[in-house]
């Protein structure tokens, strides 16, 4: 799938997806006496050996603080850390590495924009436009900001049946007083792929700054910030084969330069006197204190790994697997599916009649199948859909059709277990 | 099938979750409390009619998983006629059983079906939620209780 949700052509040389599973040590284990079927990739992905090795190599050979020492190890660590920044810039096609700020993840990246950029640029009476399918991490930071400056939050509606944003009414919501439009690229609950290129273009017309939540898309399809035309993009390393605790905020240089510091501390300053300081250049201005050096190095390895497979191939695989799962689940009696019928990313949310999602995932776990059950950090969306929670299967390139078949088999057993006792 | 799960989902639990007892709002209740599990959206409201120290009548409403529903249903069945002190003591015994699997004391009775829950740490909160609500109702706490 491409950035805009269209489907890329089939790769010329088919990839041996089954063989890629050998790159992931964790996949080869039994859970509760059954082979692990890991279908919780939207929460976090597993890590290939290559990423684990990169962390180990760094700690065994190059570990030192960055930008502070003149000694050899510090030079190596600094070069590796800045190398990761360059790689991240290339990964999303930023114009320069200065547009890449390392953060703890998507959540911190969004908080940085809301707190630092937002406090400076959003005024009382301004509107902040979000969509009804946002993750809590793309809602709560804006609520905090709105409360602080007296701005108003407005939400672009999602249609419950199709799970798509209602674009026919976009003009009603995207008015001149909207100063920021923040939207998720791929919904972690519905699997919807939003048309971010169009949304950002429409936002630009009314002069709104845009932020794209790329948590579910960065490791799953090609991302080109210049093509998307967004001002900010946030994503997390751990959902794309990288370590936890590292993520990226891409910001267009002009926007980052017009943003005051986020946190104060070492590395983010140029000069410090007792009463005042001057700030380091972008992006260092936003990275106070010793950064997650090994995390950035692990993320670099993960980006290389994903691109060796080809993100367009991964998107295609995700899409085919999700479509297969959607079709198979739709054939089961008593299963209610959420989200778009076609063109979905690798996320399938569902409910089984008479079985609460919480019971369903407990029983699936007893069969080695890892699902997520709950509100998926989407409480307002759940309310809108009229449910408390859903069960969710989310896929990555190392998942297979036979794992989907296993899911279906286990669901049938679950329905029998809970239904057969009535 | 699912021998491993029969410990958690005993027949009594499945039965109570499907046809919960005392499952209605009580108009004459003089104590009400709500319990919520924000992680999974389970919600339960307990209605009590207290006469002095005694639980004269008890009912509940709400939505949630099989464990939380059955726990609320069996709880209402067990508490009718008990005094405030007896309820509190039973709550301690039930909590001990649900977290460790050990049954101490002879008050547990049919609540023993929840002993298997301790093997599923992620589900302990589901079973305990209605108990928190009932204690809050007895104490007359105005705020909803939460498992988080
Ligand atoms: C769409 C979306 N946005 C944001 C986040 C938050 O990511 P993180 O917890 O890595 O900061 C997630 C992950 O749970 C997500 O799925």
General description of the model:
The complex is a heterodimer of chains A (422) and B (148). With 422 residues, chain A is of the alpha/beta class. Chain A folds into two domains: 17-47 and 311-420, Aspartate Aminotransferase, domain 1 (Alpha-Beta Complex), CATH 3.90.1150.10; 51-307, 3-Layer(aba) Sandwich (Aspartate Aminotransferase, domain 2). Helices cover 38% and strands 16% of the residues of chain A. Chain A has 14 helices and 17 strands. In chain A, strands 4-10-9-8-7-5-6 form a seven-stranded mixed sheet, sandwiched between helices. In chain A, strands 13-14-17-16 form a four-stranded antiparallel sheet, covered by helices on one side. The two termini of chain A are 44 Å apart. Chain B has 148 residues and is an alpha+beta fold. Chain B has a four-stranded mixed sheet with strand order 3-2-1-4, with helices on one face. The longest helix of chain B has 17 residues, at 84-100. The termini of chain B are far apart. The chains are: A alpha/beta (422), B alpha+beta (148). Pyridoxal-5'-phosphate binds at residues 42, 105-107, 135, 137-138, 184, 188, 213, 215-216, 236, 377 of chain A.
The rough form of chain B would be described as globular
Helix/strand-derived category of chain B reads alpha+beta
Q: Indicate the structural class of chain A.
A: alpha/beta
Strand % of chain B is: 15-25%
How many DSSP E strands of chain B? 4
Summarize the structure.
The complex is a heterodimer of chains A (about 425) and B (about 150). Chain A has helices at about 15-20, 50-60, 70-90, 105-120, 140-150, 170-175, 195-205, 225-230, 255, 295-310, 310-330, 355-365, 380-385, 400-420, and strands at about 30, 35, 35-40, 100-105, 125-130, 150-155, 180-185, 210-215, 230-235, 245-250, 270, 275-280, 335, 345-350, 370, 370-375, 390-395. With about 425 residues, chain A is of the alpha/beta class.
């Amino acid at each position: 799938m491409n950035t805009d949700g269209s489907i890329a052509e089939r790769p010329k040389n088919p990839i041996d997806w089954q063989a890629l599973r050998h790159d992931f040590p964790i996949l080869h284990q039994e859970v509760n006496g059954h082979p692990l079927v890991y279908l919780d990739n939207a929460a976090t992905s597993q890590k290939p050996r290559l990423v684990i090795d990169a962390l180990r190599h760094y700690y065994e050979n190059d570990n030192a603080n960055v930008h502070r020492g003149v000694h050899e190890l510090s030079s190596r660590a600094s070069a590796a850390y800045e190398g990761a920044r360059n790689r991240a810039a290339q990964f999303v096609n930023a114009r320069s590495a200065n547009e890449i700020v390392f953060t703890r993840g998507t959540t911190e990246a969004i908080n940085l924009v809301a707190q630092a950029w937002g406090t400076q640029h959003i005024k009382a009476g301004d509107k902040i436009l979000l969509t009804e399918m946002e993750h809590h991490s793309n809602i709560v930071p804006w609520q905090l900001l709105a409360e602080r400056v007296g701005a108003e939050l407005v939400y672009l509606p999602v249609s419950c049946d199709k799970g798509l944003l209602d674009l026919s009414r976009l003009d009603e919501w995207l008015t001149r007083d909207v100063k920021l439009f923040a939207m998720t690229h791929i919904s972690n609950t519905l699997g919807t792929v939003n048309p971010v290129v169009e949304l950002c273009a429409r936002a630009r017309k009314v002069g709104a700054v845009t932020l794209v939540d790329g948590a579910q898309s960065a490791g799953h399809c090609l991302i080109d910030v210049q093509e998307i035309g967004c001002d900010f993009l946030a994503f997390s390393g751990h959902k794309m084969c990288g370590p936890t605790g590292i993520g990226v905020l891409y910001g267009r240089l002009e926007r980052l330069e017009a943003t005051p510091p986020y946190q104060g501390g070492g590395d983010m300053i140029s000069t410090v006197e007792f009463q005042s300081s001057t700030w380091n250049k972008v992006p260092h201005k936003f990275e106070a204190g010793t950064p997650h050096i090994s995390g950035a190095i692990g993320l670099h390895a993960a980006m290389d790994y994903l691109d060796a497979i080809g993100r367009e191939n991964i998107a295609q695989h995700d899409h085919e697997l999700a479509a297969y799962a959607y079709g198979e689940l739709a054939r089961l009696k008593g299963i209610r599916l959420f989200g778009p019928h076609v063109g979905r990313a690798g996320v399938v949310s569902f409910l089984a009649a008479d079985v609460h999602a919480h019971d369903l995932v407990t029983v699936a776990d007893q069969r080695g199948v890892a699902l997520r059950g709950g509100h998926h950090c989407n409480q307002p969306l759940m309310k809108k859909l009229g449910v408390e929670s859903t069960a969710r299967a989310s896929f990555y390139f190392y998942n297979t059709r036979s794992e989907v078949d296993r899911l279906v088999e286990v669901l049938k057993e679950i329905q029998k277990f809970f239904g057969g006792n009535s | 099938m699912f021998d491993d799960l029969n410990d958690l989902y005993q027949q009594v639990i499945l039965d109570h979750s499907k046809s919960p007892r005392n499952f209605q709002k009580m108009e004459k209740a003089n104590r009400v409390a709500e319990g919520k599990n924000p992680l999974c959206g389970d919600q339960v409201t307990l209605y009590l009619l207290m006469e002095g120290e005694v639980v004269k009548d008890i009912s509940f409403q709400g939505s949630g998983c099989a464990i939380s529903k059955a726990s609320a249903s069996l709880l209402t069945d067990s508490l009718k006629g008990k005094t405030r002190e007896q309820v509190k003591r039973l709550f301690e015994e039930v909590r001990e059983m649900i977290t460790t699997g050990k049954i101490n004391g002879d008050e547990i009775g049919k609540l023993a079906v929840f002993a298997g829950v301790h093997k599923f740490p992620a589900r302990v909160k589901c079973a305990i939620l209605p108990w928190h609500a009932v204690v809050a109702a007895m104490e007359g706490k105005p705020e909803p209780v939460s498992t988080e």
